[in-house]
Amino acid sequence: MTRPSLGPAGRDELGWTLDRHILERQRRIPGASGDFTGLFQSIALAGRVIASKVSKAGLADVLGATGAVNVQGETVQKLDELANNVLVRCVEAGGHVCVMASEEDETTIPIPPQYPAGKYVLMFDPLDGSSNIDVNISIGTIFSIHRRVTEKGPGTERDCLQPGFKQVAAGYIIYGSSTMLVYTTGDGVHGFTLDPLVGEFFLSHENIRIPKTAPTYSINEGNRSKWTPGVTKWIDTLKTKDAPGGKPYGLRYVGTLVADFHRTLLRGGVFAYPGDKGAPEGKLRLLYEAAPMALIAEAAGGAASTGRARVLELEPTALHQRVPLFIGSKDDVALAERFLADDA
Ligand code: AHM
Ligand code: MG
Fold first, then answer.
1. Atom of ligand 1 at shortest distance to CA of 258?
2. Which of 1, 5, 311, 344 is the most buried (most CB within 10 A)?
């Protein structure tokens, strides 16, 4: 039987699966052990399981709260807990990671002693956008992968508290009108769409580049009374013809970081969750929200800032540390930084 020849990129009509994409990259690294590929496969499996639960959420008694409150003081939704458990279970036995950390767990998540400790560290927000779960609006999973810094044995918090530029890879899965996994290892950002019938992620968005600027801003305007003068002046300017391009910017805000970031990545513009008078450190968490998105933004040609500093250079001091975030098109983030300099 003859097989059709492969296309210019070495692909045929079967498409390019996530597994194959990662494997091809692994082969380019001399001496690669396959650990990273294995870890990625576990994360993708967790993503497929969570996507399947999310898509049936209204039918499967997984909506609503568990009655618990997490370390952040937020109500834990049943799907938060389910996604957290799925990720831990999918990854812990693989021997690829030495420790994990999650938005839902106060301390690091150890690897059970019956499994080998691997060389990577995985941190995640299992279900981002909790407030949108029960109303059928896009939610997501965010993940960040580091190499361990401790020598051997069980991983520790020290393995987690590394600056973002040291991430080996970062990505997110968006459970939207379709499920997509977007990731970077620092050189290029690639998006894969889940074919739910085949149960596989296929490459759909190769080498995503974020536009240099675009007329969209994304911020919770309800917090305006608490904003600093710099943030207020910046947003007010974006709404007038003094905005870049000479026309007012449009507003888009979902309230799920993964969804707001995904749109910003593909279309350009800027997403912001600033610090304010009540909470100068903002709302979003550095290690498993801001830093992974920052790695993706920069790898796509965009930028991520606290308003004063590059997110990827921050030295974390605590697992659940929060950080102000301005992320998206390079020129739009730079403009925010210029306005925020007034707050100094
Ligand atoms: P979560 O991880 O508990 O869902 O909280 C983080 C979410 C982000 O997804 C989103 O950008 C932000 O909180 C929205 O906050 P707000 O409702 O204050 O606008
Ligand atoms: Mg979150």
1. 9
2. 311
Is residue 125 within 6 Å of ligand 1 at its C-beta? yes
- Which is more confident, 190 or 33? 190
C-alpha 177 chain-centroid distance: 18
137 CB within 6 A, ligand 1: no
Provide CATH 3.40.190.80 ranges for the chain. 216-343
Share of the chain above pLDDT 70, in %: 94
Place of tokens 């309230």: 255
* Statement: residue 251 has pLDDT above 90: yes
For residue 253, count other CB atoms closer than 10 A to its CB. 15
Q: How far is the CA of 127 from the centre of ligand 2 (A)?
A: 7
Q: In the chain, which residues fall in CATH 3.30.540.10?
A: 18-205
Q: Whose CA is nearest to atom 14 of ligand 1?
A: 255
Give the distance from CA 195 to its chain's centroid: 21
CATH number of 216-343: 3.40.190.80
d(CA 151, CA 178): 41
Measured in Å, residue 192 CA sits from the centre of ligand 1 at 24
CATH topology of domain 18-205: Fructose-1,6-Bisphosphatase; Chain A, domain 1 (3.30.540)
Ligand 1 and 220: CB distance under 6 A: yes
- Average pLDDT of 101-118? 96
Residue 266's H or E segment, with its range, is helix 257-267
In a 13 Å sphere around the CA of 32, the CA atoms on its Cβ side amount to 14
- Residues 201, 209 contacting (CB under 8 angstroms): no
How many CA atoms are closer than 13 Å to the CA of 247, on its beta-carbon side? 7
Q: Is the C-beta atom of 178 inside 6 A of ligand 1?
A: no
